[in-house]
Amino acid sequence: MASKEGKPADRCNVSSLTESLNGAGRNGFISATNPPTKSFSANLGKLRNSQMASERQIAANRRNAKKSTGPRSANGKARSRRNAFRHGLSIKSREIPASEEDVLRLAQLLSSAGENAGDAALAAAEADIDMLRIQKYRAALIEKWRASPGSFNLQEKLDALRRYERSAFVRRNRA
Q1: What distance in Å separates the CA atoms of residue 150 and residue 144, rounded to the nearest whole number?
Q2: DSSP 3-state of 104
Q3: Spatial contact of 91 and 72, defined as CB atoms under 8 Å apart
Q4: pTM, rounded to two decimals
Q5: Phi, psi torsion values for 150, nearest 5 degrees
Q6: pLDDT tens digits for 126-170?
Q7: What letter does residue 117 receive in the DSSP assignment?
């Protein structure tokens, strides 16, 4: 980007930057031939000291860290282990023993003349099975919401499902 005079435009005030570096070269870099001056080092030390935590803050941080170590009981650990598992849609169909056979069967149908299923056929079959699982889960969610409207925010749940649906759709199209 050039100014009207044809010189490169400054993105910041170069003279103030050079003054603040106090010893940096013409291009603003400190090098072995152009080391920083003592005042630069002194200013850097003041900057570091002003941002350091006090002993009292450090002690408070250590006390707080001891409180947030996660669950300690076996019951709490078992419960937290399942936090990420809500519906199982992040697991690919081929990794689920019950649907592995369905994936292989569909892949053979998709491959030409019943040959051994190739990588593309396996990927497409897995994505199709995942799409079916997502559709079943969506239908179950809607039925659950109809049975007790207002028990949860249906729109939020459906929005979360779109992530998995998009992923399966993209995988199917790539195959």
Answers
A1: 10
A2: helix
A3: no
A4: 0.50
A5: 90, -5
A6: 999 999 999 999 999 999 999 988 888 999 989 988 988 999 999
A7: -
